[in-house]
Design a protein that fits this description.
Elements: E1 6-9, E2 26-29, H1 31-36, E3 47-49, E4 56-58, H2 67-71, E5 73-77, E6 80-84, H3 89-101, H4 107-111, E7 124-126, H5 129-137, E8 139-145, E9 147-152, E10 158-164, H6 171-183, E11 190-195, E12 205-209, H7 215-225, E13 229-235, E14 237-240, E15 243-246, H8 249-290, H9 292-301, H10 305-316, H11 320-328, H12 331-336, H13 339-361, H14 363-381, E16 388-390, H15 397-405, E17 425-431, E18 435-438, H16 443-448, E19 457-464, E20 468-473, E21 477-482, E22 502-503, H17 504-507, E23 516-520, E24 526-530, E25 534-538, E26 548-550, E27 560-565, E28 571-577, E29 582-586, E30 592-593, E31 600-601, E32 611-618, E33 628-629, E34 644-645
Parallel strand pairs: 7-16, 25-30
Antiparallel strand pairs: 1-2, 3-4, 5-6, 7-8, 8-13, 9-10, 10-12, 11-12, 14-15, 17-18, 17-19, 18-22, 20-21, 20-23, 21-26, 24-25, 24-27, 25-31, 28-29, 28-32, 33-34
C-alpha cells in the first residue's frame, strides 16, 4: 500500500519472503487507518445490518482521506472487475482541495495536482498517454520500468543494479525470468544475478554483465524479456450509491468531496444537537442553584420522584429533561456546582453552538472546514513522490550516441542498439592519482590534449575497445591489459572526467611497493628512464603466451620513472632531476635492445640527486616547456619554497 493501514510486527509487505508463522506475527491498525474511522459515533454515515442481521455496520467509512485513490484496489465480482492504481496522498488531497474551492474545475485542472500514479515500489512510468485516457474515461494502461543504474562492480566487471521494481513484481520473479530467458537463448551477456535485498538497505538486485557486452543493450533485452518492464491496466469500476460505475479522476474526486461534505455536515449537526442538549441542562442547573437549599428541601419532602419532578417543573419552570437531570444528580454533585463555573460553561456552549450553526448555514464555511481537515491529514501522513513520470523513454547520453551511430544512411530510422561492444577507436587513460579508464570514442582527446578538470592525464594511449595495451610498473614489469576490461567513461562533449574510473591497484595485480607508471602500445619501440639515470629503448618482441614479463633489468634499488613510445629517431628523450638538472638528447643515440637488457647510462647524477621525470618530446618542438617548483628544503638555493618557474 502507498499509505500503509496496518502496523505489523513480523513479515509484512516483503515481496520475496514467505509469510511468517502466526506466533511471530502481530498486527494493529496504523495511525492513518484510524482516520478512516474517525467520528463513526457521531452519526456521520448510515449503518446497515451485518450479514446475519444481529449487528449493524457502517455502510461506508467516514474516510478522512480518499483511500481508494491513495492506495488503489483490485477485485473481481460477478460480471465486473476493478483495478485502481495507487497515488500520492499529498497530490490527491491537493486536487481534492482545489475541487472543493472550485466546484467547476476541469480534468486538466486537477491533473496539474495529480500528474500520474505514485507506486509504493517506486520505479518509472514511461509514457503518459494511457494515464490521460484512464483519468478521462476510467480505463487505460501505462508501462512501468525498474530503476536501474550501471555500476562498476569490480575493477573489471560492470553490472546493472536494480533498486526499484515495477508494482507488485518481486526480485525472485525477475531472477526466475532471467534464468529462463538465458536458458532459452533469448538473453545474452549476463554472467550472474545476485539478490542482495535486505530489510536494512531495501531492494538491491545485481546483474553482472559479461565483458564485451554493452550494458545498455543488455538492459533493453531485460526490459523486453523479464518483468523489469511491466504494464498496469487501470479499470476504475466503483460502487456509487450501490451502483457500479466507471469513473475518471475528476468524477472520483467529485464523489469523494461530496461524501466528505456530507460527513462533516452530519457531524456538525450531531455536535450541534449535543451542545444544545448540554446547554439546556446547564440552564436548568443555573436556575436550580440560585435556590439550592429550597431545591433540596423539595426533593426531600416529596414522597416519590414523580412528585418531586412535578413540583420542580411547576415551581422553577423547568422542562422534564432538566428536572430529571437534577433529580438524578447526587447531593454532593449539586452542592459542588458553582454559579460562576456554570455561567462560564453556558457562555462557551453558546459560542460553540453559534459556530456550528454558522457552518451549517454557510456552504463556504463548510467547504473551508473540509479543506482544512484534508490539509492536516496531508501534513501528517504525506510523503514525497516515489515514482518518476516520463513522457517518453529516457535515453542516457551513451545510449543516444550509440543509437545515433546505428542509424543507417538515408534510412532515418535507428537500428537496434548493438549488444556487443564494437571494436571502435578509443583512448586508454591513466591519471596521476592512479585512476584508469577508457573513453567511449577517440574524439575528446584528439585536439584538446591530455589534461582534465579534476585530474592530470599521466598516460594516454590510442587503441580500440577490443584491443590490448601494455601496463609498465615501477619495477620494470609489463602486464598485458585487455582494454575491454577497463571501465568506460560516458561519452560527453569536452574532456572526460576520470572520476568514473577505477584505481589501478584494484585493476592490476601489483607487487609489494610496486606502482603503475604508464600505459603503452604493444607494437612500438619504448624508451624507459629510471630513477638512477639509466635509459633504454626496448624492441616490442613480447611473448604471446604470457600475461606479464620483464622489459628492463634494474639495478638494486632502482625504479622505472617514465616510459613512452620512441619509435622515430626524430624524438628527443628528456631527463629532469630533483635538483633541477635537465638533459635532452636524440633517441637515435640509444640503440634499441631486447627485453632482458639493462640499458645504458642516460644522465650523470650529483650527490643526493635522482631522476623525477623521464619523457619524450618531438625534436625542435617550440611548444615543449619545463615547469619547476622549488621544494621546502632549499632544493634551489636563493628561491622561496613553492616558487614555480616555466
Amino acid at each position: 500500500l502507498r499509505l500503509p493501514l496496518i502496523d505489523g510486527h513480523g513479515n509484512f509487505g516483503s515481496l520475496d519472503d514467505g509469510p511468517a508463522a502466526p506466533r511471530y506475527t502481530e498486527a494493529r491498525l496504523a495511525a492513518a487507518a484510524m482516520t478512516m474511522t474517525e467520528n463513526l459515533d457521531e452519526d456521520v454515515v448510515d449503518f446497515v445490518p451485518n450479514y446475519d442481521n444481529q449487528l449493524t455496520q457502517p455502510d461506508v467509512l467516514p474516510a478522512a482521506f480518499p483511500n481508494l485513490l491513495v492506495n488503489g484496489t483490485t477485485g473481481i465480482a460477478v460480471g465486473m472487475a476493478t483495478n485502481m492504481a495507487p497515488h500520492n496522498l499529498v497530490e490527491v488531497i491537493a486536487a481534492a482541495r482545489h475541487l472543493i474551492a472550485n466546484p467547476d474545475a476541469t480534468l486538466e485542472d486537477v491533473m496539474r495536482f495529480v500528474p500520474g500514479p505514485d507506486l509504493p515500489t517506486g520505479g518509472r512510468i514511461v509514457g503518459l498517454d494511457g494515464i490521460r485516457d484512464a483519468y478521462a474515461t476510467g480505463r487505460g494502461s501505462f508501462k512501468t520500468r525498474a530503476k536501474v543504474e550501471i555500476e562498476q562492480l569490480t575493477a573489471r566487471r560492470t553490472g546493472l543494479v536494480v533498486t526499484e521494481l515495477p508494482y507488485m513484481v518481486g526480485p525472485e520473479k525477475v531472477i526466475e525470468k532471467i534464468k529462463d530467458a538465458v536458458n532459452a537463448k533469448k538473453l545474452s551477456g549476463i554472467s550472474d544475478v545476485m539478490d542482495l535485498t535486505d530489510r536494512k538497505h531495501g531492494l538491491r538486485l545485481v546483474i553482472e554483465i559479461k565483458n564485451g557486452f554493452n550494458p545498455n543493450a543488455v538492459l533493453q533485452q531485460l526490459y523486453r524479456f523479464t518483468p523489469m518492464e511491466d504494464s498496469f491496466g487501470i479499470n476504475n469500476v466503483t460502487l456509487v450509491d450501490g451502483q457500479p460505475q466507471t469513473l475518471g479522476l475528476l468524477q472520483l474526486l467529485q464523489v469523494y468531496v461530496g461524501h466528505r461534505l456530507s460527513v462533516v455536515r452530519r457531524r456538525t449537526a450531531f455536535r450541534l444537537g449535543k451542545k444544545k442538549d448540554r446547554l439546556h441542562l446547564v440552564e436548568g442547573l443555573l436556575i436550580a442553584i440560585v435556590d439550592i437549599d429550597e431545591v433540596i428541601q423539595i426533593i426531600r419532602s416529596s414522597d416519590e420522584a414523580s412528585a418531586a419532578r412535578e413540583r420542580l417543573m411547576s415551581i422553577y419552570d423547568l422542562s422534564e429533561i432538566q428536572a430529571n437531570y437534577i433529580l438524578e444528580l447526587r447531593l454532593r454533585q449539586l452542592t459542588k456546582y458553582s454559579r460562576i463555573e456554570l455561567e462560564k460553561e453556558q457562555e462557551e456552549l453558546r459560542r460553540e453552538i453559534a459556530e456550528l450553526e454558522a457552518i451549517l448555514a454557510s456552504d463556504v464555511l463548510l467547504r473551508e472546514l473540509v479543506s482544512g481537515e484534508l490539509a492536516e491529514v496531508a501534513d501528517k501522513y504525506g510523503t514525497p513522490r516515489r515514482t518518476v513520470l516520463l513522457e517518453s523513454e529516457a535515453v542516457s547520453p551513451t545510449v543516444a550516441a550509440a543509437l545515433a551511430a546505428a542509424i543507417p544512411a538515408g534510412k532515418g530510422k535507428a537500428a537496434a542498439l548493438p549488444l556487443e561492444i564494437p571494436d571502435d577507436p578509443c583512448w586508454a587513460l591513466l591519471s596521476a592519482s592512479g585512476q584508469i579508464a577508457r573513453t567511449s570514442n577517440q574524439e575528446p582527446l584528439a585536439e584538446s590534449g591530455p589534461r582534465s578538470k579534476h585530474d592530470v592525464y599521466r598516460s594516454v594511449v590510442k587503441t580500440t575497445a577490443r584491443g590490448e595495451i601494455g601496463a609498465v610498473t615501477s619495477q620494470g614489469r609489463m602486464l598485458r591489459v585487455q582494454v575491454m576490461d577497463m571501465p568506460a567513461l560516458p561519452a560527453m562533449s569536452g574532456l572526460p572526467n576520470l572520476a568514473g574510473g577505477v584505481a589501478a591497484k584494484d585493476f592490476i595485480t601489483l607487487l609489494k611497493g610496486e606502482s603503475l607508471v604508464a600505459f603503452v602500445p604493444l607494437d612500438a619501440v619504448l624508451a624507459i628512464g629510471t630513477a638512477q639515470g639509466v635509459v633504454k629503448r626496448v624492441q616490442p618482441d613480447y611473448p604471446l603466451n604470457r600475461e606479464d614479463w620483464e622489459i628492463i633489468a634494474l639495478k638494486d634499488k632502482d625504479t622505472v620513472v617514465g616510459v613512452e613510445p620512441a619509435q622515430d629517431d626524430d624524438v628527443d628523450l628528456v631527463f629532469v632531476t630533483r635538483l633541477a638538472q635537465l638533459l635532452r638528447f636524440s633517441a637515435s643515440a640509444v640503440r634499441p635492445q631486447g627485453r632482458t637488457a639493462g640499458g645504458m647510462a642516460g644522465i650523470k647524477l650529483g650527490v643526493g640527486d635522482d631522476v623525477i621525470h623521464f619523457g619524450t618530446v618531438r625534436a625542435n618542438d617550440p611548444a615543449a616547456v619545463v615547469v619547476t617548483i622549488a621544494g621546502s628544503n632549499g632544493a634551489l638555493p636563493g628561491t622561496a619554497p613553492g616558487t614555480a618557474k616555466i
